[in-house]
Design goal:
Blueprint: H1 2-32, E1 34-39, H2 44-57, E2 64-69, H3 72-85, E3 92-96, H4 100-105, H5 129-132, E4 136-137, E5 140-141, E6 144-145, E7 149-156, H6 157-163, H7 175-185, E8 191-193, H8 198-208, H9 225-239, H10 250-255, E9 259-265, E10 279-282, E11 296-299, E12 301-304, H11 313-328, H12 331-334, H13 349-352, H14 358-361, H15 363-368, E13 369-371, H16 377-392, H17 398-414
Parallel strand pairs: 1-2, 1-3, 8-9, 11-13
Antiparallel strand pairs: 3-12, 4-5, 6-12, 7-9, 7-10, 7-11
Helix pairs in contact: 8-9, 16-17
């Protein structure tokens, strides 16, 4: 019996070890030859990214890319957890440009410096400057841009011809022109401009007014005359009944032909293609018709690698192989309504015919694309989105709203240990 028992235990042990070895080998094989890629593309643009990954994998790279799209908020929460634990950290990830400084200051990102000598085309002259410079911090490169996406303005061509003839001759629509058109259209129950996403609307105007989010890179300077003037510009339009009413959906008004100007992102173009009228894209609303003073709020999706002890140099190079391929194959991303950061896209005739291409084709337009790279821009965004509409629609006095925003920013920043 004892011998049979020992024999049985030996067999169980061998089978168990074989199974563990098999699973380990399978897991290792799968993970060792695969780049896990997290991104926040869960909308229609997620399908474009999936097609890009599929096309790349068809080239039979040494490391295939595993595409994982997560809701933006969930993704940013999850990455903090996995980096802190050191387990299941993705090999490659897309983050918004505004977050990179904070990640670097918190020691969370891996530099590309040790690898770029093997990728001579991953260099500034091959990319949009405003998008490329975001990843250069403390003399090291921490990101490579996928795109530069901008907040511009759509317009109903028929309504512009009727209420604002000539306003688009220079491809710049000023707030004065918007107000004049909106007042003229009131008798026909047509709104002049939509009150849309507050953050890019306000930051674009704030920059035009000469505002800066910080003087020293840390402390916020948002409660000032530039902010007040920027909010007052929109408050005046609302009080003059030039904008949509509080509670009205400007997207629906535009699609119904009841809104002349609709500020939105270039990425929304695909959502408007079923409109029953002709529309165009132009710059965001401007204070002046001087192109040298023009500002179009922009951001950028950037490729980064978070710190991980499990990622080998070979796998890191496998991730950068994909980035290098995207640099040369970004037309599919342009089809999502985006402006790729790789200037190679300018060689594509199909791209030249896309509505958003005007922002990259003209050097003056390129110069207008402003990315707010303040370390705590994310906090600014949260506050503008939380309080901005109430300020514009008169529910919060502008002075009180700005004081509240400034105080909240200061409180949040005081908790960041990376400044200590």
């Amino acid at each position: 019996m004892r011998k049979l028992g020992l024999l049985f235990m030996s067999v169980v042990l061998i089978v168990t070890l074989s199974a563990c070895g098999s699973n380990s080998s399978s897991s290792s094989s799968s993970s060792s030859k695969e780049v896990v890629f997290w991104n926040p593309f869960t909308g229609p643009d997620g399908e474009n990214m999936k097609r890009m990954v599929d096309e790349y994998n068809k080239t039979n790279p040494d490391f295939k890319v595993k595409n994982i799209s997560l809701k933006e908020g969930d993704m940013y929460t999850k990455i903090q957890t996995v980096v802190n634990s050191g387990k299941n950290v993705p090999d490659l990830m897309i983050v918004h440009a505004e977050r990179i400084k904070q990640y670097v200051d918190n020691g969370m990102l891996t530099s590309y410096d040790d690898y770029l000598s093997d990728y001579p085309e991953l260099k500034e002259e091959n990319y949009m400057t405003e998008a490329w410079k975001i990843g250069d911090l403390d003399g090291s490169r921490y990101s490579v841009p996928l795109d530069i996406h901008s907040f511009i303005m759509y317009y109903n061509k028929d309504l512009v011809e009727k209420y604002a003839p000539g306003a688009l001759d220079d491809n710049i629509v000023t707030f004065d022109e918007i107000k004049a058109a909106g007042e003229k259209a009131q008798k026909d129950k047509i709104s002049g401009i939509g009150v849309t996403w507050v953050k890019p609307n306000m930051l674009s105007l704030y920059a035009q007014n000469g505002g800066e989010l910080t003087d020293n890179g840390i402390d916020p300077t948002f409660n000032n005359d530039h902010s007040k003037a920027s909010f007052q510009q929109w408050i005046d339009l609302y009080e003059a009944k030039v904008t949509n009413k509080d509670g009205e959906d400007p997207a629906q008004l535009f699609l119904q032909g009841k809104l002349i100007f609709y500020p939105e992102g270039i990425w929304m173009n695909n959502n408007l293609k079923d409109a029953k009228f002709e529309y165009g894209l132009t710059n965001a609303p401007q204070l002046h018709d001087d192109k040298s003073k023009m500002v179009n709020w922009s951001s950028s999706h950037q490729f980064v690698m978070f710190n991980s002890d499990d990622r080998s140099d070979e796998k890191s190079k496998g991730a950068i192989d994909f980035i290098d391929w995207v640099r040369d194959n970004s037309l599919e991303w342009a089809k999502a309504g985006q402006n790729p950061a790789s200037l190679k896209i300018l060689d594509e005739q199909e791209y030249q015919e896309m509505a958003q291409s005007f922002l990259l084709n003209d050097p003056e337009e390129q110069a207008s694309l402003k990315i707010f790279d303040y370390k705590y821009n994310g906090y600014v965004s949260e506050e503008l989105d939380a309080k901005g509409l109430d300020i514009i629609f008169g529910k919060i006095p502008v002075d009180k709203g700005l004081a509240d925003i400034q105080k909240t920013l200061e409180d949040k920043i005081a908790k960041d240990t990376s400044n200590k």
